[in-house]
Amino acid sequence: MRLSPSAAGLYPIAPTPFFPDGRLDEASLDTLIEGYLKAGATGVTVLGIMGEAPKLEPEEAILIAQRFIEGFGDRPVIVGVSAPGFAAMRSLSHAVMERGASGVMIAPPPHLRTDDQIVGYYAQAIEAIGPDIPFVIQDYPLTLSVQMTPAVIRRIVMDNPSSVMLKHEDWPGLEKISTLRAFQAEGSMRPISILTGNGGLFLDFEMERGADGAMTGYAFPEMLARVVALQRAGSRDAAHDLFDAHLPLLRYEQQQGVGLAVRKYVLMRRGLIACDAQRRPGTSLTAAARAEVDYLLTRLAMKDPLARL
Amino acid sequence: MRLSPSAAGLYPIAPTPFFPDGRLDEASLDTLIEGYLKAGATGVTVLGIMGEAPKLEPEEAILIAQRFIEGFGDRPVIVGVSAPGFAAMRSLSHAVMERGASGVMIAPPPHLRTDDQIVGYYAQAIEAIGPDIPFVIQDYPLTLSVQMTPAVIRRIVMDNPSSVMLKHEDWPGLEKISTLRAFQAEGSMRPISILTGNGGLFLDFEMERGADGAMTGYAFPEMLARVVALQRAGSRDAAHDLFDAHLPLLRYEQQQGVGLAVRKYVLMRRGLIACDAQRRPGTSLTAAARAEVDYLLTRLAMKDPLARL
Amino acid sequence: MRLSPSAAGLYPIAPTPFFPDGRLDEASLDTLIEGYLKAGATGVTVLGIMGEAPKLEPEEAILIAQRFIEGFGDRPVIVGVSAPGFAAMRSLSHAVMERGASGVMIAPPPHLRTDDQIVGYYAQAIEAIGPDIPFVIQDYPLTLSVQMTPAVIRRIVMDNPSSVMLKHEDWPGLEKISTLRAFQAEGSMRPISILTGNGGLFLDFEMERGADGAMTGYAFPEMLARVVALQRAGSRDAAHDLFDAHLPLLRYEQQQGVGLAVRKYVLMRRGLIACDAQRRPGTSLTAAARAEVDYLLTRLAMKDPLARL
Amino acid sequence: MRLSPSAAGLYPIAPTPFFPDGRLDEASLDTLIEGYLKAGATGVTVLGIMGEAPKLEPEEAILIAQRFIEGFGDRPVIVGVSAPGFAAMRSLSHAVMERGASGVMIAPPPHLRTDDQIVGYYAQAIEAIGPDIPFVIQDYPLTLSVQMTPAVIRRIVMDNPSSVMLKHEDWPGLEKISTLRAFQAEGSMRPISILTGNGGLFLDFEMERGADGAMTGYAFPEMLARVVALQRAGSRDAAHDLFDAHLPLLRYEQQQGVGLAVRKYVLMRRGLIACDAQRRPGTSLTAAARAEVDYLLTRLAMKDPLARL
Fold this sequence. Notes:
The structure is a homotetramer. By secondary structure, chain A is an alpha/beta fold. Chain A has a single domain, classed as Aldolase class I (TIM Barrel), CATH 3.20.20.70. In chain A, 48% of the residues lie in helices and 10% in strands. Chain A is built from twelve helices and eight strands. In chain A, helix 8 links the parallel strand 7 (193-196) and strand 8 (213-214). Chain A is globular. The two termini of chain A are 34 Å apart. The mean pLDDT of chain A is 96.
């Protein structure tokens, strides 16, 4: 099933589970997949920044993608294929599409500055992977240091028919969603799916601004799925109530540099992965930080019964 | 009263109130001061980044500082004196100290990279303003793009006896507080006051890691004062309960680039300033954003009666 | 005399002479002006980055501008008015225009990233200073970290009738000149003057690409004036011969961070200023570096008799 | 033969030759090797930034390294092994050392800021590749945006016995060489080899400050070899005369972003590679730029007979 502009719901960004010695933990891939499906994931995104993709060998990357594709059955799997060279981007894209991926995600390299550089980069990338693979534009200025205006995103969308989705991760970013939806309303941009990132820190309002769902790695994906569903059902207050209950932990998890360590720790405590290790170079939590997360988990469990460990 | 390493509590970062045409709104300085005192401010910091200091004429800067010094009586007023040249830094420092300021705050210029550059910059700055003026080190990598390790902060503290306080605004930054307090415990750094920024986003845990209080501009300073007081009194759960009630709004306010507009809007709605305008170049809120803040205010009022407008 | 799009020739960027204790050296302003006039300067630019403008008090800035305006008689003086706030930009612009300046130069602040941000900034700046003051767009990505495409420059030019000149300091930048001149040829951009910077490192070819002259601070401005004149007269080989003779020193001078120290040292050795000090924070040359510059001066004097000290 | 701290002379940085369709041009590897040996190369460095290393497939990288190792016989080949993850760095390092490489070169990733981060990164990298592989520290702030002070380099050298060489590419960087040599003289740092980059733009003086040779890709490596030899023989004026003759072209080649295109074009014109294409994403020269390089080549041939095509 190919990714389409009508995609919506929850696409968790999957971390890659490792053993403490750095080896890939394949068994945890299965528990993770099971956890995501139970949590209500519509699809999933693998090999993103949070997936420690640049640290993987090419064959490991393909193995991980394949495992998720099998595990997710007919639900779409998006594969991050960002790479310094187009040769690697093309070979990974083709490898995973042949194995059943639904689309690929492409981030702009950090040195791009001007509007034309960004638009030109996507033109070259799509020329490299071919015009038939649905792709996601990743807009993540805080980490990638590339700033795309709504008009630049529109140019990429209108230039490339295979562009079907925006992973929206600008910060602040609420006005960007409104502007893009206004482009669609006035007919200057064809419709695309917008899924939001940033750890979910503004998911409550992003849905109200017109997002179609979430694509992020918060360690309680069931909350993301429920907030998306509540907002789509028009239950605004209930969506905010649920979101607010998780916000103290979510905020703690959404720290640059430390976030992945927190996320893996919570996923480990939840039993979704066996070990919270990162492949090197990585970070780990101090005892003080773990105790803080434990405290937040205890408090969360009192507010959201589904979050009890 | 000179600022000392034992300073603690709440030092709000004051915005500068303007009229829509860009003129300084002096009357609002008085309502703002009154509001801070009522909220439980121990002191105040003026002419910081949030105070739009670089847009002020030199005589305006002095006027604002003087007004706060008068209004705060015997409570300490810290004045931001960061400037591209040491001549301007010295003249402003001397002008405000003569008028009764308690100390000055110095941010490193954005081009500094290496440890030695940072330490050397502070040495030159203190040589410029003189060794008798108590000063605050401002550590704010997200905006200033200067990264100070705990060891660099220790070098600045140990090299400069007039260094009495750290405005801690690293992100993530909890471990930095722990490390600095460990330096003090082992005797390798003399004690300094640590007040935390970042809009208060981690104030709940920062107090537990050893912070002495808050120095930030969240538009409900009474919450900051109460969380600081509760944590100092050992009432951990109560501190977190109060903090969590405010977190949805606080998170909304703590957005780069937009934050000051949100903050001024809330202060205006609370009656602490007459108008939420920024001097140009500035930003303003869309109608959608104002409605979102209004919604957050309504929800907050249900959880914290003191936050009712 | 107002700056116009037909401006051409040499506009040296003037450094600001200081005494070792940091005081402004007014007498050296006069010897510097005399030197520039003798060297064949068509005009001059003061209070630029190389002029240590951010370290000056407002009244010093006006004094320096006035001195140059008087000294240059009917030749145009351009004044750098870049400032963090528009209030300061406006007041300095008006002060110097009233005193007889020919135009102002505006650099974009370092945080601008997208095309729209840059265009919008110039719109706001011109609104602030008024539409009647001829202004120069400063395009200097290496130092300012703002990248303007030719299309962005065209937008600024076409949006603002008072935009008359580009200080071209992109690196690499030869294609940018060709593209802008092609815009003019096809009628999509009205003609502007293009003067080039970067210490003159590509002046030889910049003239061939369509530049109108040089605006930079190389310490032998007579070489810049002669290369511009030779190229305008069609004497390509002679222009390159002269340029190549100076290139070893020019290359040495055009080092980020150190360049101003080299430049002031050579100007001091030439007798154009009394002292090579910079106001703090600044840099100075080691003995080894001074010896290297002396060696380069000796070698230069053998190739260009006019460069003998 | 393992790389040692006594390495000296010329180690050209080799580009990777491609066909216009992006395929690796293996035959040109042989002509390039032959050209380097004829030019007087002491050794060679492959898979550096200029070698478009991030665009290569892992098997291509090994093939290129192997070809150079065979072609260079008993002269040392250094292989760039910088990678986002340590797994890839280790596997490439081991693969090339087994095939006869003399050492590896490691650049710091762009996000490193503080002294401790940089030192810690090298500690982790050496732990990953093992303590037995001689390695080169690559210090290239302009492109990598990581600034290493001399003291940081000393820490890396003293912490890691397998550190034998510095590829010095700071700009400006002359004082750095002097400081490092002073460290050695005072006994606080053990001796290392220092080879300099930056396209050779300061090679004339770098040798006088204590560099052991050049490691850069200027398209006339024989000039680099001769300047190094002349300076080592004490023929200062002759070294500068030769250097100055090449400086106009060298300066043109040493442009960020465009430099590789110029370099490949000159190497193609010299017959060292068959085609000046870059693998995508890459840049190419306009007709105007090619004509400028041709003009510079003509002028150079008049000054240096060995540079005749």
